[in-house]
Each structure stands twice: as structure tokens, then as C-alpha cells.
Specification:
241 residues; Rossmann fold; five-stranded parallel beta sheet; 20% strand; elongated
Length: 241
């Protein structure tokens, strides 16, 4: 899980961005001043830093100079003023003008960090142990989101980009079948790859999987062996892959 540090003395924006990035699968720390941000870096280096330029006491540029002495993490500057030229001189990986969406910041972080974590996998399963096991398998290569039932997954999809869904069938609140019906009824997600995992052998041959454009149905007993190759295959073959 990538670690992101947000440094901004504007409480509303800092809280909004921390909430958004946490839901997007990042481990997020935040600081309301440059001094506090530097203390957090000393305790644990982040993978990326998002910092506002206009702050009291220590501005974003001063913070970046000191942060460079502690970590090589990429720095993304944000500001309501046009300071892009200066930001680049201070080694910015990206410069973003406020007001700005959480998704735009997420994209800048992904671009700055690089590597295979651009692809996002959502695990939809009410079993916490299964979610944890799957997360541990996938996180070296992918960014992982979790939802405990179909309704939570649909809410997350309204806010976040997802490349592949791993779906359980038997769940409370909204089961896998109803989730699939609603997913495919929305043009935005009609072609989103879905891999169904189930411990019920009778469900593996169910006709609805073809109707709902399920990419693969696999037994929970076997999915550890096949899941990595399956996800890689569907991400690489998707239009965005």
C-alpha cells in the first residue's frame, strides 16, 4: 500500500483529500504545517508528498527543500496561485491548480510513483479474512480496494476508478448477483472485467455468468493459484490496459 503525506494548512481541503485517497487504497498521513510534515517524514518516509505552496510559517517551497534532505519521495505542489514555474525549479513531480478534484490528485500520485500500481483491483467479499489474504497477494503489483458487499462496491465505483473486480456471490445487504445486474445496467461499467470466486461448485456453471459478461468463475479453493495470471490477463486485454 503506497504511503502519501498531505501537507496543507487548509483544514477542509486536507480532510477532503485524506478521505478520498484513503478510500482509493492509499495509506495517508496529513499535516497542517511544514514543520509537522517534516516530523512525520522523520518517523516514516512516504512514497509521495502532496504539499500546498501557500502556508504560514513555512511555505511549500521551504518545506520541499527540507524534505529533500530526508526523503527522495516525489513532491506534488498544489496552489490557488500560478506558481508552476517556481514549482518546477523546486523539483516538482507535478503542479496542480486549486480547486482540484481528488481524482486528479490521485492520477498525479500514480504518475509520480510509477510502477505496476496503476491498475486498481476491487475485492468485493464479506469475509474479512479472504479480503486480507487477497490483498496481501495482490499489493506487490496492484492497488487494492475493498468492499464488504455489493452496495458498498457500487458506492465506491461512483467515486473511484477500478480496473478489475473480484466478486463473491453470497454476501449480506447486496449479494453478487444483484451487484452484477446493477453493474451491467450502467453503461459506465458494462465492460468492466469481473472475476467471480465462489466456494459453491454448483454456481460455477450458472448460465447468468455468460449473460452478465463475467470473465471467469473460479473456486475459492483454487483462486490463489490462478488469480494473479487472471487479473494480469484481463488488465492487459482491456482498452485502458
Amino acid at each position: 500500500m503506497a504511503r502519501v503525506l498531505i501537507v496543507d494548512d487548509e483544514d477542509v481541503f486536507r480532510t477532503f483529500l485524506q478521505t478520498y485517497l484513503s478510500r482509493a487504497g492509499y495509506e495517508v498521513q496529513s499535516a497542517d504545517s511544514g514543520e509537522t510534515g517534516l516530523d512525520l517524514i522523520r518517523r516514516r518516509a512516504p512514497d509521495a508528498i502532496v504539499v500546498d505552496i501557500l502556508m504560514s510559517r513555512m511555505d511549500g517551497f521551504e518545506f520541499a527543500v527540507e524534505a529533500r534532505k530526508l526523503t527522495s519521495a516525489p513532491v506534488i505542489f498544489v496552489s490557488v496561485t500560478d506558481r508552476k514555474g517556481e514549482a518546477l525549479l523546486y523539483g516538482a513531480s507535478a503542479y496542480l491548480s486549486k480547486p482540484i478534484s481528488g481524482e486528479r490528485v490521485r492520477q498525479a500520485i500514480d504518475s509520480a510513483i510509477g510502477g505496476g500500481k496503476h491498475a486498481v483491483v476491487m475485492i468485493v467479499d464479506d469475509a474479512e479474512d479472504i479480503r486480507l489474504l487477497t490483498r496481501e497477494m495482490l499489493e506487490p503489483q496492484y492497488r487494492v480496494l475493498e468492499a464488504e458487499h455489493g452496495a458498498a462496491a457500487l458506492r465506491a465505483l461512483e467515486q473511484l476508478r477500478v480496473d478489475v473486480i473480484l466478486l463473491d456471490i453470497h454476501m449480506p445487504v447486496m449479494d453478487g448477483r444483484e451487484f452484477l445486474r446493477r453493474l451491467r445496467a450502467d453503461a459506465r461499467w458494462r465492460d468492466l472485467p469481473v472475476i467471480v470466486q465462489t466456494s459453491d461448485m454448483n454456481l460455477q456453471e450458472e448460465p447468468m455468468w455468460l449473460d452478465m459478461k463475467v470473465e471467469k468463475v473460479m473456486s475459492k479453493d483454487d483462486f490463489c493459484c490462478w488469480i494473479m495470471n487472471s487479473i494480469k490477463q484481463f488488465i492487459e486485454s482491456s482498452p485502458a490496459g
